[in-house]
Amino acid sequence: MATALLVVVCGKVLAQPPGARRAPGSGPRDDAFRMVDAYIVSNLQEGLGLSDEQFVKVLPLVKRFLADRREMAEQRRRALRDLRDLLQAGGATEAKVAERLREVKALETEEVDKLRGNLGALDAAMTPVQQAKFRIMQIEVEQKIREILREVRERRRGEAPER
Question: Cα angle vertex 67, ends 73, 83, to 5°?
Answer without folding.
Answer: 20
